[in-house]
Design brief:
3 domains, six-stranded mixed sheet, 430 residues, four-stranded antiparallel sheet, alpha+beta
Length: 430
């Protein structure tokens, strides 16, 4: 048997770049708390063939994410080509006797072997994968003093590799029987007439409902669902599933108007969290203002408060703060009116309009700007983790790759923290 040595196909500078990428992969692998996951994978295999260790297969999956391989075939080709990557993942060559009596050397798993590994991972190891994610999230809470104080949520549209429903309903890996159609409206601008301009996006696939820390732009909780699932309903489920310690740490919870829901606001308020959620105009009677009880104070659907003087002029009142003892918002005149009267509006007048931080206040506007953090994370999901160009079908596989991607993201952040580097924690390439 003759084994040919592997020659480098790259110049020296290219090899140095590859070594840099491998170091990045090593940092991720070294910081993944995957002991229970590997134990579970080994127990699944039991007495089956052990040609390729499950830990090496798991590392190959992580490598595919770190190196932005668009599909499993690309990753396997890279493994066959790159001996340094194989060494880091833990693959050792194996020799098999062929039918004609000759021997063939295999340096990386076949597509069928890797596919079987992925099937075991997505079918039997969902809880273990989620536990890895949660351990990493807890690490962030333990090692970043203000982690979790500002949380933001959004739904991320992810297309399926399939383009529409299949007439066949049996799952076989070649069709997507879980995905469905979703629609989302985005406010893009205001035209010259003062009208809000919106764009509508429609996709066939899934939604990643994602809660992130708004400062560090790292994931805290998530859920993958078919595209049509309600953002509000999934947000309620995610909030209820979050650990009590996480809710106690949170001070502000930001979301766009798609999450404008009384029950969400009440739940957050009951946990001592200020809901910074944009509001929809739900007034159906065409009124621009409503009177507050039997007073000269009126308010708009988005929380602006006015005083009506004896000449029926509207004088805009300024926000003075939240009175916790009476659960009310305090308003008063601006200094130029030389009027010291204070007006209190009970929050239960309309729990969507009157929240702990007044919608018309500078503080609300300042905190709401932090919501864009979750949009940047969504952008990284597409750009850094290749979810805008993938070959994934089926919710189990989608959930697997979303979970694994967030594990990579958090493990990379952990490696930086361990090195006392707190810059750009959310960046895949630092």
């Amino acid at each position: 048997m003759r084994i040919l040595p592997q020659f480098s196909l790259f110049e020296k500078t290219q090899n140095e770049e590859i070594l840099g990428d491998l170091e990045r992969l090593k940092n991720v692998i070294d910081n993944i708390p995957d002991g229970k996951l590997i134990y579970k994978l080994n127990s699944i295999r039991e007495k089956g063939r052990n040609d390729w260790p499950v830990i090496s297969m798991w590392h190959a999956l992580i490598a595919g994410i770190v190196f932005k391989h668009k599909n499993d075939a690309d990753m396997l080709r890279e493994l066959n080509r790159n001996s340094q990557l194989r060494d880091l993942c833990g693959f050792k060559p194996k020799t098999e006797k062929q039918k004609d009596g000759t021997y063939k050397v295999f340096v990386a798993p076949s597509a069928s072997a890797y596919s079987k590994f992925l099937k075991n991972l997505k079918t039997y190891c969902v809880e273990e994968l989620k536990e890895v994610f949660e351990i990493l999230v807890k690490y962030m809470y333990d090692n970043l003093e203000d982690f979790g104080e500002y949380l933001a949520i959004d739904g991320k549209a992810v297309q399926s590799y399939a383009t529409n429903y299949s007439k066949e309903t049996k799952e076989d890996g070649r069709r997507d029987t879980d995905a469905n159609w979703g629609t989302k409206k985005y406010t893009t601008s205001v035209n010259s007439k003062g009208e809000v301009v919106t764009n509508k996006v429609t996709w066939f696939g899934y939604t990643v409902h994602l809660v992130v820390d708004a400062k560090y732009e790292l994931p805290v909780a998530f859920k993958v669902t078919p595209a049509s699932n309600s953002e509000q309903m999934e947000a309620k489920e995610i909030l209820k599933a979050m650990h009590e310690e996480q809710l106690e740490k949170c001070k502000y919870f930001m979301a766009d108007k798609g999450y404008d829901d009384t029950k969400i606001i009440e739940y957050l308020k009951g946990k001592g969290i200020a809901a910074i959620i944009d509001i929809r105009n739900m007034w159906k009677d065409g009124e621009e203002t409503k009177q507050y009880k039997d007073t000269d104070v009126v308010y708009t659907y988005d929380g602006k408060v006015y005083y009506i003087d004896e000449n029926e002029n509207q004088i805009k009142l300024r926000y003075l703060g939240y009175d916790k003892s009476s659960d009310s918002l305090r308003y008063g005149f601006k200094p130029q009116y030389n009027d010291n009267r204070v007006f209190r509006i009970k929050c239960d007048t309309d729990k969507r309009i009157f929240v702990n931080v007044a919608r018309d206040s500078k503080k609300w506007a300042r905190e709401y700007k932090k919501r864009t953090s979750v949009e940047r994370v969504n952008g990284r999901i597409d750009r850094d983790y290749e979810f805008e160009d993938h070959t994934i079908r089926g919710i189990k596989k989608m959930d697997l790759y979303v979970t694994a991607s967030f594990i990579v993201l958090l493990s990379m952040a952990k490696s930086k923290i361990e090195a006392n580097n707190y810059n750009h924690l959310a960046a895949l390439i630092s």
